[in-house]
Every structure is written in structure tokens, then in C-alpha cells.
Amino acid sequence: MIVRINNEVEYDKDKKMLKSDFTSYDISTPASYCLTLLIEKRDKLVSHEELYEYAWRRFGMEVTANTLYQNISELRKALKSCGVHEKLIQTIPRRGFTLLSDDQPDPTKNEDDKETSQIITRTKKLLSTCSDKGVWSKLSYILLLMIIVNILLTLSLFIT
């Protein structure tokens, strides 16, 4: 099962992997169960007890609060490495967590500027072929995109 998160990241439940256009990130089995439950109850409070039950107790394991928080931290790190920088997983102190809905539109779907959209899409495809498990940082991608756009703008000035 593949679920799209925040219009930027795909979560493959079967492979326990988060994947963006630029990188992929394998997550642990308990973290995968935590993310699955957060996705199923998106925008709702998921209590600590629900997470313990879903990710560990049903398999006969008891874990500490520290283990739960380490798995949530792993999910946040994985999401960040895939390009989701806002706090998608919110902590509700002493109660649990919630996964916020992705209300943001996909910038490549902007109908007003099809040429820019095509450039972004091509650049993402190019970069995804160059990427090797996060070798390039997000800043490098942005810099490369800016250089490509600058070259295209410069060429368009000479053509007209």
C-alpha cells in the first residue's frame, strides 16, 4: 500500500519506506506501524496507549515511553530527509500525537505557469536519477534548480 504524504513523500507500507523525488528512507518496523496508525487517524489524536498497542503490545512486547519517542523522532527525521520540513507530526503533551493533513497544493500543478512546472518536473526527474540515498542536500537541489532557471531565462533574453 502506497500513501502520499504532504504532496511530496510517498509512504510504502509494505517496504517500510518513505520516498520523495530526491531520496528514499527506510524506517524501522515499529516506526512503520506508528506511521500507519497516524495516517489512519490523520488529524485526530492518537494516544500513547494506542501507539503502544498497535506497534508493540499486539506482538507481545512492552516498551518504554523513550522507545515510543525514539520511533516518532525517527519518523520526523525520515520525513525531513525526504523534504517535508514543517512539523507534520505534532506532539500533544502527555496525551499523544497527531498527523496533520496536507492542505498545501502541489506547486508543479500550477496551471498559470506551465513552462515553470515543466522545468521543475524535468529537474526533479534529472535529480532523482543522480540521487543516491541523500548524497545531495536539499540546498544543492535548490541551487541546481535556480541555475537551470537562470540559464533558461538568459537564453530566452537572447532569443527574443
From TrEMBL:
It comes from the Bacteria. Residues 1-101 form the OmpR/PhoB-type domain. SMART domains: Trans_reg_C. Keywords: DNA-binding, Membrane, Transmembrane, Transmembrane helix. GO terms for molecular function: DNA binding. The chain crosses the membrane at residues 141-159. InterPro entries: OmpR/PhoB-type_DNA-bd, Sig_transdc_resp-reg_C-effctor, WH-like_DNA-bd_sf. GO terms for biological process: phosphorelay signal transduction system; regulation of DNA-templated transcription. Residues 1-101 bind DNA. Coiled coil: none annotated. SUPFAM superfamilies: C-terminal effector domain of the bipartite response regulators. This is OmpR/PhoB-type domain-containing protein.
